[in-house]
Write a structure and sequence with these properties.
The protein has 266 residues and is α/β, with parallel strands linked by helices. It has one domain: Alpha-Beta Barrel (TIM Barrel), CATH 3.20.20.140. It is built from 10 helices and 8 strands. The chain has an 8-stranded parallel β-sheet with strand order 1-2-3-4-5-6-7-8. Helix 8 packs across helix 9 and helix 9 crosses helix 10.
Length: 266
């Protein structure tokens, strides 16, 4: 069995000095690769350094919508950040009307910038949306995000939103939230998403799945997400692992090329 954590933040302070043990537990749980996702311009060098130092880690390039004081990146800057073989995606980007209120036009501009950068460099998007699904989908359509595709990460929206995103060529990723007892509506959405259009993630260090809820999350725990998805779909975990791993490398083609090149050189 092979699993991939499609979204984590191993550069965060919770993992300082702990990366070797985190990688060990990944191996023990058949989690062969993980995508470390950028959220700030200041943090991007650390994300890239982690990916460059470890063959089984990849990076993204982007600035999260939760940082109103951040200096706005330009399309050219994001494209420049992404010009590295271990950077396989653009983001985390999107809209969040839950944590921030007021005039959020700057979020929408930032989102458009990331989509334009993704289209320019030909790398898929990692999209965050919370309490902003209608605007998120509208901007994705207006900016032709379907040209590059991507993933709706840590998905907590409705089946209709999932369907609309999939129609634009996006995958839908489920996190540890899907294992929570009070997540009945999300479990129903997870049943409705075909395995061929799904990824699994941790969003570590946040949202640890049952039975680790309340602890610092880590990529090894993505196994519990896959187990819950398997239960919801009435299949074994190996089937979910195979599908989501295939989907990951099919979407993030830079990661697939890197793995293929590494195998050829071995």
């Amino acid at each position: 069995m092979q699993l991939v954590d499609s979204h984590c933040h191993l550069d965060f302070p919770e993992f300082a000095g702990r990366i070797p043990s985190v990688l060990e537990r990944m191996a023990e749980n058949a989690v062969t690769h993980a995508l470390c996702v950028s959220v700030t311009r200041e943090g991007f060098p650390g994300v890239l350094a982690l990916a460059a130092a470890h063959a089984n880690l990849f990076a993204s390039a982007g600035v999260h919508p939760d940082y109103p004081e951040a200096e706005e990146p330009s399309v050219a800057e994001i494209v420049r950040w992404a010009d590295h073989p271990k950077v396989v995606a653009i983001g985390e980007t999107g809209l969040d009307y839950y944590r921030l209120q007021g005039d959020l036009e700057w979020q929408r501009r930032r989102f458009r910038t990331h989509i334009r950068a993704a289209r320019e460099c030909g790398k898929p998007l990692i999209v965050h949306t919370r309490a902003a699904a209608a605007d998120t989908l509208a901007i994705m359509a207006e900016e032709r995000a379907s040209d590059v595709g991507g993933v709706m990460h840590c998905f907590t929206e409705t089946a209709d939103v999932a369907r609309a995103a999939m129609e634009m060529g996006f995958l839908v990723s489920f996190s540890g939230i899907v294992t929570f007892k009070n997540a009945a509506e999300l479990k129903a959405v997870a049943r409705s998403v075909p395995l061929a259009r799904m990824l699994v993630e941790t969003d570590a260090p946040y949202l640890a799945p049952v039975p680790h809820r309340g602890r610092v999350n880590e990529p090894a725990y993505v196994r519990h997400v896959a187990e819950e998805v398997a239960r919801l779909h009435g299949v074994d975990t190996e089937t979910v692992a195979a599908a989501t791993t295939r989907n990951f490398f099919g979407l993030f083609r830079g990661a697939a090329r890197f793995v293929e090149d590494s195998r050829a050189a071995a």
